[in-house]
User: Which sequence fits this backbone?
């Protein structure tokens, strides 16, 4: 984020000049952001799909328990207030 804000303020890379030199990328915001994307893209995609799949599997695995709880709430006449 600091690269974006520095770029928008018209900076010449004073905030990230040393980092850019160490990484061997251009000293503008897009050089640093591109490097960050290259370093973190695979990890972010794996986590994104993993969480999505985990929620789907968990929802199906816990469906009988959720169904039973919802029936109990209906019997207790609080199903308009609580639903799992």
Assistant:
């Amino acid at each position: 984020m600091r690269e974006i804000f520095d770029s928008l303020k018209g900076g010449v890379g004073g905030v990230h000049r040393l980092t850019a030199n160490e990484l061997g990328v251009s000293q503008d915001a897009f050089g640093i952001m591109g490097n960050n994307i290259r370093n973190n893209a695979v990890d972010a995609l794996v986590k994104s799909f993993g969480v999505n799949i985990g929620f789907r599997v968990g929802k199906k695995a816990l469906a009988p328990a959720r169904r039973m709880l919802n029936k109990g709430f209906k019997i207790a006449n609080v199903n308009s207030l609580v639903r799992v």
Remarks:
- The CA atoms of residues 37 and 80 lie 46 Å apart.
